[in-house]
Amino acid sequence: MFDHHIICRNTLHNVVDNDDIIGFRFQARLPYYRGLGLSMVEDLAITINGEKIDRQAIRLGLRGREWALDELETVYDDRWNFGEKATITVHKPGGLTQGKHQLELAEQLRISYLPFVPITRFATELELNAS
């Protein structure tokens, strides 16, 4: 239902550290109407321009804190609220070139009352903004 609101427009940027471009980031929302504890975020899968990003290269950031995806399973004291924009950072040396990019995000969430783990996907074209 909220899948077309997952990826936030105008948020794609390269990540620069000491004048080196080390990756890219964008903002995303949770597609679940109640919000979830971070330990219930099973996976975030990203494909950029047809290239699948390795899970180990992805980090989720909320309210000044950041976690690798494997760390999320033990985060019991924080949550991702409905409508809240998280920053998703991808380690990719050299980042992305200027221009338009096809981005797909799949969020796999553990919902307590469902007997399966749903995956919500959304793909869109975003233009890289200056860092």
What's this model, at a glance?
The protein has one helix and eleven strands, in the order E-E-E-E-E-E-E-H-E-E-E-E. With 131 residues, it is mainly beta.
**Strand line-up in the sheet with most strands:** 1-2-9-6-7
User: What summary fits the major beta sheet?
Assistant: 5 strands, antiparallel
How are helices and strands ordered from N to C? Answer: EEEEEEEHEEEE
How many angstroms does the end-to-end distance come to? 32 Å
Low-confidence stretches: none
Radius of gyration computed on alpha carbons: 14 Å
Shape: globular
User: How many DSSP H or I helices?
Assistant: 1
- What's the mean pLDDT score? 89
Give the number of domains: 1
| Number of extended strands | 11
Class by SSE composition:
mainly beta
**What percent of the residues sit in helical stretches (DSSP H or I)?**
under 10%
User: How much beta, percentage-wise?
Assistant: over 45%
Domain C-glycoside deglycosidase beta subunit: 2-113
Protein name: C-deglycosylation enzyme beta subunit
Family: Belongs to the C-glycoside deglycosidase beta subunit family.
Keywords: Carbohydrate metabolism, Lyase
Describe this protein's structure:
The protein is mostly beta strands. It has one domain. It contains 1 helix and 11 strands; from the N terminus they run E-E-E-E-E-E-E-H-E-E-E-E. The strands form 3 sheets. Strands 1-2-9-6-7 form a 5-stranded antiparallel β-sheet. A hairpin with a 2-residue loop joins strand 6 (58-62) and strand 7 (65-68). The radius of gyration is 14 Å and the shape is globular. The N and C termini lie far apart (32 Å). The mean pLDDT is 89. This is C-deglycosylation enzyme beta subunit. Keywords: Carbohydrate metabolism, Lyase. Residues 2-113 form the C-glycoside deglycosidase beta subunit domain. Belongs to the C-glycoside deglycosidase beta subunit family.
